[in-house]
Amino acid sequence: MLRRALLQASTRGLFSSSPLSLASLRQCSSSSSSSTSQFPNDHFVEHLDDTPQPPATATISIDRSSLYHPPEHSHEPSADSELVKHLKNIIKFRGGPITVAEYMEEVLTNPKDGFYMNRDVFGARGDFITSPEVSQMFGEMVGVWAMCLWEQMGQPKRVNLVELGPGRGTLLADLLRGASKIKNFTEALEIHMVEVSPALQKLQYQNLKCVTEDGGDGNAEKRCISTLAGTPVSWHATLEQVPTGLPTIIIAHEFYDALPVHQFQKASRGWTEKMVDLNENSSFRFVLSPQPTPASLYLMKRCKWAETEEIAKVSHIEVCPKAIDLTEEIANRIGIDGGGALVIDYGLNGIVSDSLQAIRKHKFVDILDNPGSADLSAYVDFAAIKHSAEEVSVKCYAEDVSVHGPMTQSQFLGSLGINFRVEALLEKCNEEQAESLRTGYWRLVGDGEAPFWEGPDEQAPVGMGTRYLAMSIVNKKQGVPVPF
Predict the structure, then answer these.
(1) Concatenated DSSP letters for 178-196?
(2) What pTM was computed for the model?
């Protein structure tokens, strides 16, 4: 009976008489919707066309290796983290890969296990250091920019001061301390923190020295006040939730770089989106989409903004739909309510090609390694931000919104007076504090390793002055913002 069953199975093509050749496994039809292009490295695996089975013969070959494979839904304990399980379940449920942007968003902001959601990732003990954590002078200089803009706005009695992704709250804390003597400015402020992480919200509350007060006039709703300058503080998950109707100053420092990007690779059939899939051993891998994806519309828009020569030079392009949409929202708000936005981040004033990186404990690691344990970020496409804001101005509020920059962070801080500020601080500190000031100053405005460093090479401060760019979007009625 068993022999008869096996013979019947063989004639139906369930068992082959000989193994498939390597050439047939690599066959790929570019005209078929189920096929993909050749992939450039071992991370990629092709989607294969159906390969005709060879005819049955008298000799039966049975591959018994599969009998030793555990079932797909094995109840054996797994070392995967909850986030890794979640990502794998998404891919399995869909029956195919997810975009790099979806992977990045889950890794960073998954409500339960996202990288930013449940811990402090900033500073020397965290995974990376941002400019506000380097020196108080950064927040003070941003405060100078905000006060200058407020004066150009006509010193309104009430103004929204919004920070997107405030980290620990260090930047605004330094801003408020530095501006505390300008009472007309600080008394006009209503601070809004756009933050999704409960853990970071608590840190921001502490660093802004907030206290919670009962609402006045019989209002049961409580409100938070920063005792640094007596300003009200509130938290929101998105910019859209921040109340409109007031002139608004928006600060986006190292916020755009964490927005999820879609990656496209030039293939034989054109630009193809890079995706995240599972290997046979259930590890993550990159593949290329066999067909156009929704994000291709943003790729088309981005290519429309670029010169043909610029596109011809790259084999990869990153596009960030959320950055484009956010910029349009910012430009709309500024066009209606007045005010301005400051964007500072590391990036390029042009097309960004394959910049996505993962950092864990201040070291670069593989993007797909242990998702949720490392920060993911990508270079910011400042040219796309500029085009997005300008298109809103043309379509909706002509003559109301203008874009200035980008300029380097070194130029931005230098024009606002950081050189004078560091000299004033050096006169009032001891040698240890002076060393810290010089190091912080170099990291903010320098380029490359500090020439004055005499310590271990691996600890030499590296300047961010030219790697980081600054751009401003303002209501035209206020004129050109300082220092652009």
Answers:
(1) HHTT-HHHHHHEEEEEE--
(2) 0.80
